[in-house]
Amino acid sequence: MFVANRYRLYPTEEQKVLLGKHFGCVRWVYNKGLAMKTEAWEERKENLTRYDIQKHIPLWKACDETAWLSEVGGQSLQSALCNLEIAFTKFFREKKGYPKFKSKHDKQSFQVPQRGRVGHNYIHIPKLLEIRAVISRPCVGTVKSITVTKTPSGKYFATVFCDNGQALPIKRPVTESGTVGIDLGLKDFAVLSTGERIKNPRKLKKAKGQLARAQRRCSSKVVGSKNRNKARMRAARVYEKVTNRRKDFLHKLTTRLVRDNQTNAFAIEDLDVEGMLQNKRLAYSIGDAGWGAFRKMLNYKSERAGKTVMVIGQYEPSSKACSCGKINSLLKLSDRSWTCTCGLKHDRDLNAANNIKRFALHPQNHLVGRVTPEFTPAEIAVR
User: Fold this and answer.
1) For residues 361 and 193, is the Cβ–Cβ distance under 8 A?
2) Predicted local confidence at residue 383, as pLDDT
3) Main-chain dihedrals φ then ψ at residue 101, nearest 5 degrees
4) What is the 3-state secondary structure (H, E, C) of the chain?
5) List 46, 65, 269, 374, catalytic entry
6) Where are the domains of the chain?
7) Spatial separation of the C-alpha atoms in residues 382 and 323, rounded to whole Å
8) Residue 349 buriedness (CB in 10 A; 0-12 / 13-18 / 19+)
9) Is residue 289 packed enough to be buried (19+ CB in 10 Å), middle (13-18) or exposed (0-12)?
């Protein structure tokens, strides 16, 4: 089982210069490979693989104009081409958008696939030697790779991927009583089929005024001056605090849900977050909620706990369907409750959570991809 640990790095001034060279060289190789692939396809209809581009790395190092590539680890340069290949795979398979050129103003990172070590108060990286680090938790197992990143606020982190040699636990049987439906929203971050409502913290909205002041101070400074750089760092620190607070909320919530002994499975909806962000009125609140990060955390934590995450289609009428089979097609987003023709009164979010659970347990749910669980059919439950 693979485990990722993130450690804070405290490099010396000399090591900061070497880290900057690593970031720049990896970014240059990625952009060069992207330009070569694009040119080869547009001019010759030729699809270059990462191995075709990788053959040019020794030639670039031997050239006087790009001899500075020899100052960084060769495996980090090869990892950049591997990431480029993954980006093109997502473009063709998942329609994630054509890969873009990297900028020095974005998040900086590079990978060390081999020969990295973790000590009691340091992390060893080839050509950078030992970088002082805060090892908050022990790194158990074999180190597979290390990813070094630099945040816009100037902090350095190392994400260490280890194989602890343990197998994933056996999945618990999925039952109706042990399944919890989760409806994600904006008024309440999540409403569970058990009736629990989880308040939306709205971390970005609470820091909106502080962010606006930091951005105004940054825009009033002279471009290229030291004062502008200081103001930019202050704004980046505010953004970083918002991100850390949101992650803290999501980690605590997903951990609490997974650790519930009465729950063996979760049912969620396959939301089209990218499409929903096109709504100008709701894009700010949707981005602040962090639904995508919640789903990722719930998935990998459930895998480690031996629990199942079931997904229903994004076009299922979860909030509009009644247990009697009637679908209220006239339901608006502003309607928080509605009454069915059969006489049942529904709370929109709670009804959606119950329907998500019911749809996920249905044997025709092809997105589950697992053996049909034990459940009580909705037709029998209504009777």
Assistant:
1) no
2) 33
3) -70, 140
4) CEEEEEEEECCCHHHHHHHHHHHHHHHHHHHHHHHHHHHHHHHHCCCCCHHHHHCCHHHHHHCCCCHHHHHCCHHHHHHHHHHHHHHHHHHHHCCCCCCCCCCCCCCEEEEECCCCEECCCEEEECCCEEEEEECCCCCCCEEEEEEEEECCCCCEEEEEEEECCCCCCCCCCCECCCEEEEEECCCEEEEECCCCEEECCCHHHHCHHHHHHHHHHHHCCCCCCHHHHHHHHHHHHHHHHHHHHHHHHHHHHHHHHHCCCCCCEEEEECCCHHHHCCCCCCHHHHHHHCHHHHHHHHHHHHHHHCCEEEEECCCCCCCCECCCCCECCCCCCCCCEEECCCCCEEEHHHHHHHHHHHHHHCCCCCCCCCCCCECCCHHHHHC
5) 269
6) 2-163, 179-382
7) 7
8) buried
9) buried
Residue partners of 189: CB distance under 8 A and separation at least 6: 198, 199, 200, 201, 253, 289
* Cβ contact 200:189 at 8 Å: yes
Q: Give the integer Cα–Cα distance in Å for 95 and 43.
A: 23
Q: What pLDDT does 365 receive?
A: 66
Q: Are 245 and 210 in contact (CB under 8 A)?
A: no
Return the pLDDT at 366: 52
Rounded Cα gap, residues 354 and 270, in angstroms: 15
269 assigned to active site? yes
Catalytic residue, chosen from 43, 349, 374, 379, is: 349
Reply yes or no on whether 64 is catalytic: no
Residues of the chain with pLDDT under 70: 364-383
179-382 sits in which CATH class? alpha beta
pTM: 0.83
Partners of 8 in the β-ladder: 134, 157
Active-site entry in 176, 183, 196, 260: 183
pLDDT tens readout for residues 78-97: 999 999 999 999 898 877 78
Q: Is 183 a catalytic residue?
A: yes
**Which of these, 166, 364, 347, 370, lies nearest to 266 by C-alpha position?**
370
Residue corresponding to tokens 């998040």: 107
